[in-house]
Amino acid sequence: MAATPLLELRGIDKSFGPVQVLHDVGLSVYPGEVTALVGDNGAGKSTLVKCVSGIYTIDAGTVTFDGSQVAIHSPRDAAALGIEVVYQDLALCDNLDIVQNMFLGREKVRGIVLDEPTMEQMAGDTLASLSVRTVKSLRQLVASLSGGQRQTVAIAKAVLWNSRVVILDEPTAALGVAQTAQVLELVRRLADNGLGVVLISHNMNDVFAVSDRVAALYLGQTAAQVRTSDVTHSQIVELITSGRSGNLGLPPEKPATAGFVDITPPGADR
Amino acid sequence: MTSTTTSGGPIQVLKPTVAGHLHDYWGRVRGGDIGSLPAILGLIVLCLFFGIARPTFFSAVNFANLFSQGAAVIFIAMGLVFVLLLGEIDLSAGFASGVCGAVMAILLTNHGWQWYLAIPIALGTGVVIGLLLGFLVAKLGIPSFVVTLAAFLAFQGILLVLLSGGKNVSIRDKFVLSLANNNMSVAVSWGLAAAAVAGYAAAQFIRVRGRAIRGLVTDPLGIVLGRVAALAVILLAAVAVLTQERSINPSIISVRGVPIVAPIIAVALIVWTFVLGRTIYGRHVYAVGGNQEAARRAGIAVDRIRISVFVIGSFMAAIGGIVAASRANSVDPNSGGSNVLLYAVGAAVIGGTSLFGGKGRVLDAVIGGAVIAVIDNGMGLMGFTAGQKYIFTGLVLLLAASVDALSRRRAAATGNR
């Protein structure tokens, strides 16, 4: 177990107008480990990821990266730190090949000419380091790839830039059984290569298959962050659905004190 | 077909053989990635048909005519390829070419300017037009169809105003007239053709060698040699025909050599093909055309790319306008009007550029432009009326658009695109 987290979030608050989406959220991502981020729809997973990747700015709280406190104001800041996000909808161009997609926006040039051999070599090296052997040619159009292969290219694109934290948003959501296994294996390999991996998933099988830790969000709060081996399947489900499970998770809710319906997330008035 | 394994980077891939390469190509064609193949086949069929029906079609005079007839449309179509690559359309390109041609003609004839000042001003006019169109489309978010439809009307009006209500401005500048009407000397014709073949061969071999040194997969030598040989045969055969005596009465005046406009088309083709295929800018054009959201997330300035394709479109339209003015020896209120724009869009689409964005090459404009020039010329020789020519060209365009749509569907079904 690594002693210090690579990326640590503490006390993150985020509101959109009067709606507080994140309240005092904490998350620790350790190098060489897969941290699963789970939670029901609307629990704040996506918002949290967008805060980390610089698409949203946080209202309060601290982000510590590799031991020093950092401020992430834009996706470029996140990329400079080595934080890459692989979004659900992949963001690949169908009409470009694998190499062209992996280097999109960060092409290598010699003078004004694209340096295709260098890019092809780097792309090949990256795929090889992830033990990807399933593509026929690096010059295949992405359109001709299967869902799993596309996910692989999207992940390889994220690790190409010596990134240190890779956040995967539901990487297996649209895949079949064999392809899911293939992508999960790749996720595990990322962590084994020393990266900090955050896996957002609704699928408990995926979570238990690859993750070292589980962080559960419940209505914009961190319900718990525990080692996967210390909890059971049903405990995680309870954390997701009610925010606590036995002595894990949020303290029991105080009974409602006022007569009106309180729609703010618990604790928003504190 | 023997396949040996080589390392393409650290990824194990099959080393392609000539047969394997052709097999892969056929597989891509069957999978819906047909490119210019229908246009090239169509061009051959049309040429054979017209050549058999009217033997004068294959005469050197007529072959040279094809260049001057097709040139303006080809230039405009080259610019439209960029616009179409983003899934946009520029309906104003025809009259933009007319306006730019008129600007040049007025400066030359009415103001007595030199060609080396008038031509850059005309090209600059094209750039300004493109900036305006691009700004309206990219920054205000008006659909390009509407913006350029409005511009189509407005430029028609500007052309009338520039020509003070419809007067014909004739051009007497020798240099400008030579662009579309004169030929290079026989020696220069052969020299340029040889240089083009040598340059292409060198570029191909340097590329293969660069990849081989890095241990990457290369195209098989047979295919590379085949490409160079094909270009050499086409170019040298064309030059051989064009260096024949074409004058009716050679004792009075000799007409021989490749039309000057041919190397201008070639230079534009090479430059824009390089820009699209070998530069970051070109890669980003394809990316924005393929998946705008992915391009935006990759940090590409999508708006700037969008404006730039309209600038290139109108700039190439300006060149088309200059060449058209040169060929007609004048500019009139219908310059760039009538069928010019539709022929240009048709040329790009017939050549294989997709109307849906993301797919196309500058070469498509040349191949498609050749198809249209051949139809126009051949049907004219056979005595068809203008009406019949338009109907047939319309059908060919429809056919090309259906091929595009069907191949897209096929590609979606086979997962090729």
How would you portray this structure in words?
By secondary structure, chain A is an alpha/beta fold. Chain A has 2 domains: 1-82 and 163-270, 3-Layer(aba) Sandwich (Rossmann fold), CATH 3.40.50; 91-161, no CATH class. Chain A has helices spanning 45-52, 75-81, 98-102, 116-129, 147-159, 177-192, 204-210, 233-242, and strands spanning 7-16, 19-29, 34-39, 60-65, 68-70, 83-86, 109-110, 113-114, 165-169, 196-200, 213-218, 221-227, 244-245, 248-249. Chain A has a 6-stranded mixed β-sheet, sandwiched between helices. Chain A has a 4-stranded antiparallel β-sheet with strand order 2-1-4-5, covered by helices on one side. In chain A, β13 (244-245) and β14 (248-249) form a beta hairpin. In chain A, α5 packs parallel to α6. Chain B is an all-alpha fold and 417 residues long. Chain B has a domain at 54-182 and 259-412: Orthogonal Bundle (ABC transporter involved in vitamin B12 uptake, BtuC), CATH 1.10.3470. Helix content of chain B is 71%, strand content 3%. Chain B contains 16 helices and 4 strands. A two-stranded antiparallel ribbon of chain B has the order 1-2. The longest helix of chain B has 29 residues, at 386-414. The radius of gyration of chain B is 22 Å and the shape is globular. Chain B starts with a strand and ends with a helix.
State the helix count of chain B.
Answer: 16
Range of strand content of chain A? 25-35%
Q: At CATH's second level, what is the architecture of the domain at 54-182 and 259-412 in chain B?
A: Orthogonal Bundle
By CATH, the architecture of the largest domain in chain A is named 3-Layer(aba) Sandwich
Shape of chain B: globular
Overall number of strands of chain B: 4
> What string, H for helix and E for strand, traces the elements of chain B in order?
EEHHHHHHEHHHHHHHEHHH
Which structural class should the secondary elements of chain B be placed in? Answer: mainly alpha
- The helix fraction of chain B, in percent, is over 70%
Distance, first to last CA of chain A: 35 Å
